Amino acid sequence: MTADERAQIRRLARDVAVEVYGPLAEEMDRERLPISLDQRRRLGDLGFLGIAHPERYGGAGAPLAHALAVIEEFAKVCRPAAFQIFEANTGPAQVINHLGTEEQRERWLPGIVSGERTMAVAISEPDAGSAATDMRTAAKPVDDGFILNGGKRWISNGGEADQYLVYCRLSDAPGSKGIGALLVESDMAGVGFGAPERLMGFRGIPSADVLFDNVVVPKENLVVPAGDFGKLFGIFSIERLGNSTMSLAIAQEALDRSVRYVQEREQFGKPLVEFQSVQVTLADMVLQVEAARLLLDRAAEGAGTGLPNPLHVSLAKCTANETAKRVTDLAMQLHGGNGYTEEYGIERLHRDAHGWAIAGGTPAMQRIRIVSELLGRKFDQRK
Ligand SMILES: Cc1cc2nc3c(=O)[nH]c(=O)nc-3n(C[C@H](O)[C@H](O)[C@H](O)COP(=O)(O)OP(=O)(O)OC[C@H]3O[C@@H](n4cnc5c(N)ncnc54)[C@H](O)[C@@H]3O)c2cc1C
User: Fold this and answer.
1) Mean pLDDT across the stretch 87-116?
2) pTM for the model
3) How far apart are CA 215 and CA 167, in angstroms?
4) Ligand 1 binding site (Cβ under 6 Å of any ligand atom)
5) Domain tally, the chain
6) Nearest CA to ligand 1 atom 50
7) Interval between CA 22 and ligand 1 midpoint (Å)
8) Is residue 381 one of the residues assigned to a domain?
9) Are residues 367 and 234 in the same domain?
């Protein structure tokens, strides 16, 4: 795909998002409703769920940057719909794409690309968040597969997804060395879900604990064996770019709405934009959004159809996450009382901004990765 084609797909995404999904966004948030199967299939029919997947599984085989452009346009107006595009293109399906066997790719990717099925990623546990390698969920090898026990927390699409890529202990080796990943179907015996979480934002994106009680997982569902945790987290960089894009979209939307508002709203007999402190606030918002966009573009361009540079990813994620929180806060300030109402949607942007900054590794953890990449050494958080 060329740059022209990317601009074209961005325009198409913008039109569909605004016309079809935008009008549903407020209700999804208010009622905590995810998008329906039909609405997801429609995203598949339009080709949005397979942009960054190979053509032989129904995808477009396009660079990651194309998928990110579509995610951005959707995330500006309807984050529950954008989440589906994010998860399909940059989520656990990329682990299948990059690390799965040919048989696994053929088995699982077409369903995700068409929107028929969704796959969530299950890493975090009640006592293993930032310290993901403290996870205890474990799969015991048996003759023809594994017996999986444990539980995961904060799983986006938990209870809603058909499949879960479960990071778990596959051997007795300590820390990251014993961790790999299994594909678990939601209807396997022994898979259960906690009550839906009532999150501050992310309200059209279900979240729940995912629990495993002696789940028999066939050996064909082993995606990443113990010892390949480094590779697994290498692929997770793609998800972090998707996450950064969600944050950038939120910030851009808050900025765009503020630009319009300060020119329309009058106080003291003139538009707000005529006041110098409003100009300075707006300039601060532009500075942050543009910086986040450039860092994200660099990381995405560098990835092509492969893996991004981890330093570039952490720089982009940290900046985009923090930009989204700050810029939505400033947008609320510029909107005055209207910004604090649900009607104007600014508070929804602000609530969602906080969620994306925690998901996928907090800005504090990204900062540690930045220094680690910069100096070419690891910092053991346990010593
Ligand atoms: C909206 C949302 C969606 C999510 N979706 C998923 C999902 O789909 N799948 C999944 O597996 N997980 C998901 N998560 C979980 C997410 O990955 C974790 O919440 C995140 O990694 C932080 O872990 P924690 O919540 O346990 O916080 P903690 O690790 O307890 O951190 C608390 C605070 O301490 C700081 N901190 C911790 N360790 C250090 C350190 N060494 N140095 C400096 N500061 C430190 C953190 O930065 C943070 O500010 C989601 C979370 C949210 C909020």
Assistant:
1) 98
2) 0.98
3) 14
4) 120-124, 129-130, 154-156, 199, 202, 355, 358-359, 361-362, 364-365, 381
5) 3
6) 359
7) 29
8) no
9) yes
